[in-house]
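Before relying on records like the one below, remember that each one covers exactly one chain. Contacts with other chains, cofactors or solvent are not represented anywhere in the record.
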Amino acid sequence: MSEGPDPRSAAGAPSEVGPLGPHETTVVVIGAGTMGHGIAHVCALSGYDTVLVDVDDIRVAAGLSRVKANLNKGVELGKVDAADRDAALMRLSGSSDLVTAVSGAGLVIEAVPEDLELKSDLLRRIGEAAPAGCLVASNTSSLSIAALSESAPDPKRFLGLHFFNPVHILQLVEVVHGPATSADSLAAAVTFARRLGKEPIVVKDSPGFASSRLGIILGLEAMRMVEDGVASAADIDKAMELGYRHPLGPLKLTDLVGLDVRLAIARYMHETTGSERFRPPAILERMVAEGRLGKKSGRGFYDWND
């Protein structure tokens, strides 16, 4: 029994979404924050004309500035050629006019906060302006693709493209197919991720997908260990970094992602699965209530002001 479309089954078939090649597709990324600016970065660096969109010019400018800073750092570290940086910046633009930006898109990736109502409203607005054949993707880390597809312009051409932070460094992309996602759309999305230099994995729509489902369990248990006084946050992280070769320990990663984001995911997973494994620990609830959200607020499990 098939559990979803096979990305190989569309080979040789007429494409309903276009080849999504760098010189054939304009990518519009909606949301210039932590994830959105990173997605725009890798798209522009991979040869795509890229438009970064947010609700006002100030946020757009901030996102563009972060892309430029990361590209400059890449040049300084010898990881990006200066010519490639300059070409990427030429291909990258910003806009606070969603309708105009989306009207010329071959691919739209929404990267706004993890809120079902917010994302659903945005997808309806995209549907009113996006051209026929446009592929639409959500960067959600846990929300149901099936639920979001109810607001998408065409469920056959809608799926999840879950990138990881920092996007310009981490290779993984979860390509999440919903019940209506066509094989052609899935194949195009996998090809697109590979053209960005990423390693895509294909995941069936389910709560938390693959990465968030595993990652949130590890993070919540690490929090409970701090709560129970088993060890310090730094030593728990060191155990996973040195013992299991994780590039970042679960608590440092939580600080980078944002404790508020982790709390929202845990609540969603607990509600949708009914499993006590996902019930948010009291320490997480308390820290978020105190405004200790991680790196973005200066304090989380670590003090980032230093």
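The radius of gyration is 19 Å.
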